Amino acid sequence: MEKVAIDLHIHSLLSPCGQAEMTPNNIVNMALIKELDFIAVTDHNSAKNLPAIMAVAKELAKETEIGLCILPGIEVTTKEEAHILAYLPTLEAAMALDEIIYQHLPDVSNQKEIFGPQIIMDEHDQIIGEIDKLLISATDIGVEKLWQIVTDLGGILVPAHIDRKSYSIIASLGFIPLELDVKTCEVSKNQSFEKVLANFRFFKDYQFIHGSDAHQLEDIAERQYFLELPDMRRQTLIDYLG
Ligand SMILES: [Zn+2]
Ligand SMILES: [Zn+2]
How many angstroms separate the alpha carbon of residue 164 from the centre of ligand 1? Predict the structure, then answer.
């Protein structure tokens, strides 16, 4: 088994709340400096910076022979206003989910003076576009529907920051529906697994991971959250989580 350092919840500058420094190259290089093994960039309701992020990681892996694996992901806001991390086996699957989600976002334009810009970059950190619809809106996709869509794409769901009093599945629904065959839940970085278990006994049936939910570079996790995996393949991590 390999001890693998993870941070599976990072926002790029595509998320309106993500800082301008969260460019594809900066995120990947910071993850390398921090000696992480597996990261996921999970922007709000979009995967449009993943092509650049994955291209940067691939290029750096060639140059440095240091392996940094990227798990494609999106932090989806469901109709119930729950933040759910969707992890996909391939970039193509993530982009397919991105397209579905965009159609299910309300027709509300981003007011960038208030929320911040939603920037798409290429692998050289050049701006190639901006997203019009406000990405932090709730979609009209319910959690059970999201489950169907993501499992059809070969992916899995991990409810985000379940200990939070807003935008978590517990804050929105009060429980995790049994129809969702969820195996893993994410706990905020400053909260202990023990505390969550003490507050919610039913979580004893789930495994927990920590994620940084970083919106700026310094908040990306150090080598501090570990999983034991038989190998470093993306599918192995997905099988572990879901
Ligand atoms: Zn969130
Ligand atoms: Zn987040």
Answer: 9
